[in-house]
Amino acid sequence: MKENLDNLLPASEEGFYPIRTVSEVTGVNAITLRAWERRYGLFKPERTPKGHRLYSQQDILRIQQVLQLLEKGVSIGRVSNALKNETELEDLADITMQSNSGKTLNKNSHNKNNDNELTKQFKEAPSEDQWKTYSEKLLDAVNSYDLEQLERLHHEIFSLYPLEIISRSLLRPVLTDLRNQAEQLQSLSGNYHFYWQFLQQRIGGLFLKSTLQNRGKKILLMAYGDSKANVELMLFGLPLLTHGYRVVVLGSDIPFDAIPMTLSRAGSDALIIYSAAPVSQASPESDQGGSTQTTEMMVSIKAVADSLKMPVFIAGEHSEAESKELDETNLVQLTDSAIEQLKVIDATLSKE
Amino acid sequence: MKENLDNLLPASEEGFYPIRTVSEVTGVNAITLRAWERRYGLFKPERTPKGHRLYSQQDILRIQQVLQLLEKGVSIGRVSNALKNETELEDLADITMQSNSGKTLNKNSHNKNNDNELTKQFKEAPSEDQWKTYSEKLLDAVNSYDLEQLERLHHEIFSLYPLEIISRSLLRPVLTDLRNQAEQLQSLSGNYHFYWQFLQQRIGGLFLKSTLQNRGKKILLMAYGDSKANVELMLFGLPLLTHGYRVVVLGSDIPFDAIPMTLSRAGSDALIIYSAAPVSQASPESDQGGSTQTTEMMVSIKAVADSLKMPVFIAGEHSEAESKELDETNLVQLTDSAIEQLKVIDATLSKE
DNA sequence: ATCATGTTGTACAGATATTGTATAAGGAAG
DNA sequence: CTTCCTTATACAATATCTGTACAACATGAT
């Protein structure tokens, strides 16, 4: 799974970069780089037949980690140990990730003890206030518009924890934080947009790639309401991706009239309609209008669901509000929990 | 000169180019080209019966890929391996972007005719009604919601032609087509959104990756008006990416008040404000209101540009409309042509 | 405080590699 | 005949390699 989802960044696993390039990129003198290697063995770049060093992208990443530690005040001599610790952690995480991906395969195919596995996977969330630390780091990176750092952090996080948890425990809260910040202090709204765009690009790529690689059933994902909901929509859809479904994001501006045609063409197995958090309630014009609009929406959704021959799920904020009205055959309501969502979806779709 | 043209044109029709042409187009000294071929086997152009080299379009592409890698910092001796690696990875993350990076080399070698190079490169667009064929194929794929086919097509196109040309000659027209289609027949709007999302994810990933790898100056890219402008914005920004700039997309909803703060934090070298095509004029409420709003916008932009200490470019539809008002020190207007845009931006930023 | 020792970035020197370009001698194109 | 292209060899300017050394500074013991 790590391999699959994560190599958005590592353009070249092998070493291609000569020392001058690495020196330029990292800002570390070439002489110093050699000294570090010789003295502390911080990295072991490949060599050409004639002995010239060939650094890989990962080597560069390591060097940047070293620099981060240096900034923190760790002396270069100790960095070696610190790094060892971290890589041990990573290796552990790799193992858990792999077991996860193993589950992924099971999911769509035959699998009885869904419950245990799923639950276990989520309970094993190796998180505490660690998320706080990450959250702060992310906000720092956003604050200084440091794209490299942002990528580095996400790279690390994505390779350490399951996407489901990251989405819920870190990315969504951080994004919400930034949005609130932006609403309070308009001059900071650049931060929100910066991170929003980053996530859009980062996770968007992930989506495309995973959906192309996955073999599971095809789920269409759309939102209504906030047109800025794209990223939220994708964050919501991440768990589906990691469980093997092919998820096609359709965004938030599709008129309901177009849905039947779209679905029949797309050959999908299910539709999920997601309502973003009502946030700033978008248009400040109508407060009650909003609610009537919502119920109107619900009526439309029902109609659509009725006319379709496939399961339709709804998720997001509305679900609680009008939960009782929903008892259609193929209109299923999703709770807020990713575990539950997956259980319900798996169950419903395996009936087909 | 005549002779040159005569030589150039018939040759280009057949798709074979003598070495001098290739040298001019790519900016690589003919001697060097031969050396690369001999020493590293980077390409093996056809030969005339008497042994003269005949480069195909593909060969030129190869060379441009090489240049791309050189710009990334790979040493020429390793490019061969890097290329092998890249072609092995039929990986979304490894979309090879070809296009000139002659600038780098030009600085090393002495080269006068920058102008010619750029112009020629664009004129040589290996396109005719070939774009029509592609366009139809794309529309077919969208129509049947065939993500795999869509990806296959883009992969092929992206690896065959320079992104600048693809963006202008294919992607933008197709997207516009779909939008018009959607406006006329609402039930087809799913198609538009499907392709929109695809491009968002596909090109978004490209953006992130390239911006992380590029070393050039940092350009912030924002739009105003249509909030669906993200994809258009990115399509507009593609040429910048392929020319080594780091391009940070900020989207379309940033209030002007937030710009100064954002720019000072982001440490960018320039700002580009892009106005999407007025399309369906978004809100059908105010027609005249729209224009006053636009001029208001212009005033704001001017104010912002004045207060900033970096070049501010504006591009898109408005530029023609109010072109005459713009004579600020650091507010530069971009024409519709990617060549011109790049020339102007390069020139302005190299002054800094 | 003093002296010894360790750390760390950088410098130097001599050898080898890399890489763009130059030259020479001859064939090909027009 | 002149210009371009071919190959092969050569060359010069950098880059990089290794190993040793040094200077600035920190640590620690006497």
> From N to C, what is the helix and strand string of chain A?
HHHEEHHHHHHHEHEHEHEHEH
* Name of the CATH first level of the largest domain in chain A: Alpha Beta
Q: Could you say which overall geometry of chain A the principal axes of the C-alpha atoms support?
A: elongated
**CATH-scheme architecture of the largest domain in chain A:** 3-Layer(aba) Sandwich
Distance between the termini of chain A: 27 Å
Number of strands of chain A: 7
Query: How large, in whole angstroms, is the Cα Rg of chain A?
Result: 23 Å
Largest β-sheet summary of chain A: 5 strands, parallel
Provide the CATH topology of the largest domain in chain A: Rossmann fold
The chain-level mean pLDDT of chain A equals 74
**Most extensive contact:** A-B, 64 and 65 residues
If you had to describe this structure to a student in words, what would you say it looks like?
The structure is a homodimer of 352-residue chains. By secondary structure, chain A is an alpha/beta fold. Chain A has 15 helices and seven strands. In chain A, the strands form two sheets. A five-stranded parallel beta sheet of chain A has the order 4-3-5-6-7. Chain A has a two-stranded antiparallel sheet with strand order 1-2. In chain A, helix 7 packs antiparallel against helix 8, helix 9 (163-184) packs antiparallel against helix 11 and helix 10 runs parallel beside helix 11 (230-242). The model of chain A is unreliable at 1-13, 88-125 and 279-292 (pLDDT under 50). At the A-B interface, helix 2, helix 8, helix 10, strand 4 and helix 12 of A face helix 5, helix 9, helix 11, strand 5 and helix 13 of B. The structure holds a DNA duplex (30 and 30 nucleotides).
